[in-house]
Amino acid sequence: VDCSFSRGVCDWKQDTNDDFDWNPADRDRGDGYYMAVPAFVGHKKDMGRLKLLLTDLKPKSSYCLMFSYRLAGERVGKLRVFLANKKTAPVWEQNKGKDERWRTGKVEIFQGAETTNSIIFESERGKGKTGEIGVDNVVLISGLCPEE
């Protein structure tokens, strides 16, 4: 999986049972697109989910999900990552940005006998009226996540 959203949304699908959709947004310097949820969309606690179905992950192996993310604006909300076989708890969560810069998120995915069949990015609307939650450059590589 290697998706920078500059040529569309790759194989990502909008969840039809959520409250709002993620949408492509222009990068400031005109170098492509990313997926975003503006702060003013929906009501407090509403959710938007972007889902990627995974078909070829091998059992008993490890993978690294790496992505760029940005939480811009005061009380903008939360960004979570879920793996479909562990639906109850997010494997990664961030609820505010120190500033408006893009940061890198990493999630180790360890496959047991049951393989993960999807990755879900979930945005939860906060109280804020300005800013946005953004995701870009989603990459899934085999092996452990590289150290900084």
TrEMBL record:
Taxonomy, superkingdom: Eukaryota
> Start and end of every MAM domain?
1-147
The record's listing under SMART domains reads: MAM
Record's PROSITE patterns?
MAM_2 (PS50060)
GO cellular component term, pick one: membrane
Record protein name field: EGFL6 protein
